[in-house]
Amino acid sequence: MKVLVINGPNLNMLGIREPAVYGSRTYADLLDNIKAYCIRENIKVAFFQSNSEGAIIDAIQEAYQQMDGIVINPAAYTHTSIAILDALKAVNIPTVEVHLSDIGGREDYRKISYISEACLTTISGKHFEGYLEALRVLRKHLGNI
Predict the structure, then answer these.
(1) How far apart are the C-alpha atoms of 42 and 62, rounded to whole Å?
(2) Residue 22: active-site member
(3) Of the N and C termini of the chain, which has fewer Cβ atoms inside 10 Å?
């Protein structure tokens, strides 16, 4: 199984950005956690992070016919980007949406996800563990490829 993990704006600032909400672990810690899991589970993983909506759309399009699944934390673009939704629909790659914090328990504007329409499920509020759960969802959905 080949999976692309996409992280959106400000996730590169983990450990610095609002530690009361996002914790003290860094973006490098997140990637290390995912890599270790993927090694154990024999999953090929690639990572992409950008603060730019267009770059995220390009990464989704480049995954077409290259990746079996996508795990995406679109961050603030969750609540604003129909363009990312359209890119996910266009490539039709099984996708799981992930959020470190519980977006349903935060500000009203964070409760709306345009992205979820193109996703198998949304995992929210489980911090780093949410990414691993997303990988398990993809493996179950895809079978043991």
Answers:
(1) 22
(2) yes
(3) C
Query: First vs last Cα of the chain: how many Å apart?
Result: 5
Q: Given the residues 37, 99, 109, 131, select the one marked as catalytic.
A: 99
Annotation marks residue 79 as catalytic: no
Q: Please give the chain's pLDDT, 145 residues, in tens.
A: 999 999 999 999 988 877 776 677 899 999 999 999 999 999 999 999 999 999 999 999 999 999 999 999 999 999 999 999 999 999 999 999 999 988 776 677 777 899 999 999 999 999 999 999 999 999 999 996 6
- Asked if residue 54 lies in contact with residue 78, where contact means CB atoms within 8 angstroms, the answer is no
Phi, psi of 3 (to 5 degrees): -125, 140
